[in-house]
Amino acid sequence: MTISRFCYGFGVFGFNGARNDRRCRWDNGLPAHVVSDSQNDVSAEIRQKSDMNSFGSHKRVLIFVVAYNAEKTIHEVITRIPRTLMAFETEILVIDDSSRDTTFERAREYAEEGQAPFPLTVLYNPVNQGYGGNQKIGFQYAIRSNFDIVALVHGDGQYAPECLPALLQPLVEGEADAVFGSRMISRSGALKGGMPVYKYVGNRILTAVQNSVLRTSLSEFHSGYRLYSVNGLRRIPFDLNTNDFHFDTEIIIQWIRAGLRIKELPIPTYYGDEICHVNGIQYAFQVLKASFLSRAQDLGIFYDRKFDIAARCQKNQVYQPKLGFESPHTLALSRVPAGVKVADIGCAAGYISAALRQKGCRVTGVDQFPVKDPSSVDDFLQADLDTAEFPLDIGTFDYVLLLDVIEHLRSPELFVEMLRASWRTETEVKIIVSTANVGFVVTRIALLLGWFNYGIRGILDLTHRRLFTFGSLTRLFEQAGYRIEEVRGVPAPFPLAFGDGMLSRMALALNKMLIRISKSLFSYQVFLVCSPTPSLEWLLARAEKACEEKIQSALR
Predict the structure, then answer these.
(1) DSSP SS3 for 425
(2) In this predicted model, what pLDDT tens digit does every residue of 44-71 receive, in sequence order?
(3) Domains along the chain?
């Protein structure tokens, strides 16, 4: 996801760092037009910035006006939509969210009189859907009608429709997947536009916290002036979002998680006599909650389907290498000597295979999906370990890696038996296994609180079919005829969660210290090394062969 602040040399807003007396003027309580010291100069400037012919007239644009109790303003908001948008195939959609006044009737009259600058559709929700719910219906209309861009405008006139041409430009030119009008790019612009100080401070604080949590750099999370690519909307499950006001935050999070591009443009601030329907305290709580839960999902300790965007876009690429700190990957690499033959079962993207090849090992990869980088392995076999016989003789290898694989199998018991049965030579082979420890302290506390949240990765990964503790994993291999040689606990992958900094290193050191106290409680993963013991059939064959050798020796 790319976020950029895209500030035109737009004198009407007084940006570019220079002192400027140009301002937005409002008549009759509404921002009728943008003016400067010379009305003609600014009109010319707007026309220059709004030259739609350079944007590409083939785009279908929907101006979506959300309306609730807006009978006094809806007519003027529609009228002020710039005629320069005629260069596009532009339509207007007004959805009245079960207003208690005559908003619907006023909008319908305007449509029937043919005064609207563009084709106008007016819909009515018989049951109030809420701010977010109303947006969902409008976005669905845009998708169903195959529009290219949908621009969200508020029926109370809080956001100036005159800005639409400039806001459209990055979308039309393919520079962004969403464009947000920001009142906060200019430090003083919002206050000069009448934003109450408490709202200004709250906006700044919430945006700063959300940027920190979500690792973004938006100037404002809480503007309702937004334009979206309809293709982008198709990629996210916005229908699962709240119907309340923090819908705007949830759709930003989805946009970020889908890797879609956001640009911000400056817009004027206007606060008139419109009625605010937002409970500020509840709204702040909900937007922070959504932001923190999204981050928690990245850490594998929470799961919400509406934030599961990356998994929809990627296949077998969710898992990341755990190198540079103590992990099953680094432990396995330290135990496999240079120059040996290795079978990397469940090699995924090939991170470990590539590291082993750098040590001079010959690596055969096995996975259900094609390896991302074919050069990371010497040989590759595509196989579903749940539905086929094990495709290799493990006796032809020195080491077999089962790193974070066993928990994905339908029947781990059957698999480890097949693995041992495939050992058809007398050479020694070591099996290196890792899996999540479901007895980890965080999972225990969550369960105590009644939480059992699956996620896209972590201990409760959605693809995990079986969960193990130290005892159950050890018994799995012992009862299948393996000799256990090493069992140890592995700390949580803090560098993946928080970055490879001092905080992560301190957390790792503390976790390792706690593992010494109780590995079953404080280990995030289980690391196990074992070897298959000979089968009875192999022992019987060896006894028969030894008997013949003795007899032949005696006859000599």
Answers:
(1) coil
(2) 333 444 454 444 558 999 999 999 999 9
(3) 3-312 (3.90.550.10), 328-539 (3.40.50.150)
